[in-house]
Amino acid sequence: MPPEGMEDDSPQSRLVDMSVMCRYLAAQCQVRLGKWTEALEMLGEENPFRDSDTNGPHVPNQDGGLKLGASMCLLRGTLYMRLNRVDRAKTCLLEALALDVRCFEAYNVLIRCQMLTVDEEWELVEGLRYKEQQNPEEADFIRLMYTARLKKLKRLEEISLARRRLTET
Of 20, 87, 95, 127, which has the most beta carbons under 10 Å away? Predict the structure, then answer.
């Protein structure tokens, strides 16, 4: 029951309409309940920040965690996977990585589920904006981690070098 004087459909009772973070949390709750379609409806089918100057890949993260936009794209991609819409899932997961190179879960799903060709994997690893989003040491570490996980069908020497460098640190 809403507080006295406040109706159910008032703006105060719909925090999901006022706060992107609340919408993300509500979508996470829907996921926990196994309601994939409802969770996707809560998030929206597209990234609302796509053309925003406040949440692109060039904008540094202020709190040290994953960017909210990247987290939303990751969840959206996961939901599309659950709904067997693999092409849409792939697009969302790639967008999550573009927004925040530290979104390892998105990278892991793309690689583990073999959503990319060998050439696409290398294009992804080489095209991410590591140094724009991280300090040089973290950027190098993330790139090495991603390189070490690539398919071993091409560029074996680069993969071996990445693995050696990771074990040396």
Answer: 95
Round to whole Å and give the CA distance between 38 and 43.
9
The CA distance from 107 to 93, in Å, is: 7
Element counts in the chain: helices (H) and strands (E): 10, 0
CA distance 97 to 126: 12
Dist CA 120 CA 81 (whole Å): 19
Calculate mean pLDDT across residues 48-73: 74
pLDDT at 142 exceeding the cut of 70: yes
Closest CA to 88 of 33, 45, 35: 45
Residue 88 is encoded by which pair of tokens?
């849409």
Whether this model's pTM surpasses 0.90: no
Let me know: does 103 contact 74? Beta carbons within 8 Å: yes
How far apart (Å, rounded) are the C-alpha atoms in residues 71 and 77? 10
Q: How far from each other are the two terminal CA atoms of the chain, in whole angstroms?
A: 56
SS3 sequence, 74-100? HHHHHHHHHCCCHHHHHHHHHHHHHHC
Average pLDDT, the chain: 84
Q: Flag whether pLDDT at 60 surpasses 60.
A: yes
